[in-house]
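Write out the 3D structure for:
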Amino acid sequence: MSVAPGVKPRRLEKVRVYFRPRVFTMLLLGFASGLPFLLTGNTLGYWLRDEGTSLTAIGFLSWVGIAYSLKPLYAPVMHRTDVPLLGRLGRRRGWVLITQLVVSGGLAAMSFTGPRGGLAVLGAYALVVAFASSAQDIVIDAWRIEVADDPDELGLLSSAYQFGYRIAIVVSDSVILISAGHIGWPVAYGLMALLMTIGILATLIATEPKRAEASRTSRDVEMPLWTRRGFFDAVVGPFIAFLKTYGWMALLMLVTISLYRLPDFFRGPMLNPFYRDLGLSKDTVGGFRASVGLASIFLGIAAGGLSSARFGYFKTLIAGAVMQAAGIAAFAIMAYYGANIFTFGSIMAADDFAISFAGVALVTYMSSLTTIGYTATQYALLSSTYAYLGKILKGTSGALVDYLSQNGHTLMSAYGIFFLISGAIGIPGVILCVILARAQSGRRQEKQSLQTEKA
């Protein structure tokens, strides 16, 4: 069948979208976004455990990750102002660049200090990295949403972001372990600081999004941020717009999102100390994460994207929540029965697949809820909401394992109970996803009925 000149087949057009430069840029920015995350959390916990730090202290130090939940406090400023001296890059690229430079500098400082320089000093540098990283996430998320031409490309960019993010997670969670086992933790962290140049280069080659420019420019002129009206529009306006759009369901959405990733957050600080206490070497853990883990991550991301496109947001969210809870609880098997290579690889693969699948489902769903003109602030609200409770509770994870191990349980038995509890706290999230799906379906049917009556 021939195609008339000047007419592009829709299928060909959809294939070509995968070769757009912005998709590759999104991949690199996703890498920059994901790289610092574990370096101030789970991976740092492995380093601290190597130095003999208690599980309770490791859990408490993970609270620096709360910085990622404070995005709504400074997102309005980043959404409505340009970076001094970097304004020529554009608002989005300017903010991304300055945050990347701070992240790189903070990681370098952590590598020079280390645990022997004092937990307070190391924690302070980790806090700086966490704040700069969370600020970087705000602007990259806004760039991703604003630069997309249509919902299909938004889904594509979200997948590219997840691919880049998950590659960075593998690097900061596995490659660094292998490196630390041979060249030491300080040098390994120094290399992570250098890898942030990948994100810096991506920022320099990126294009500033144009889709929201008119809306943003008119607001800046009519309501400058330093005026009462401008401050209200920047800080309160996004939340009012969100509530007006979704009504009473907005609260249900926020509660569901806040519970969705709770199991993963809660067990996070204890995962690497568990591997170490189990007797697994850094080379074994790092090697499996970089091979079996990476393959499972890619499969999970691909499956999550396909499921969202084929079955919709809610069925994918529900499936992801169930798989996530089951995958986390499965770590109790290793705690109770030990870990041969097959068991370790199988459980890690299942967990990585489930977490990646759930991550794509949640990111795509949250992206669909934002309004152009308020992308940075609204997405910061949503991405912070899903982390609030988890970031707070995960600081108590080490204390829980220590308590169990000191009150009638061996250390491995305490870990086993902990992982079972972590999986079980995912059940409320599954239930709320089902309730939200039904409520959203009822609302959609109600709207269709009203439109039919008006017609």
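Residues 1-8 have pLDDT under 50 and may be disordered.
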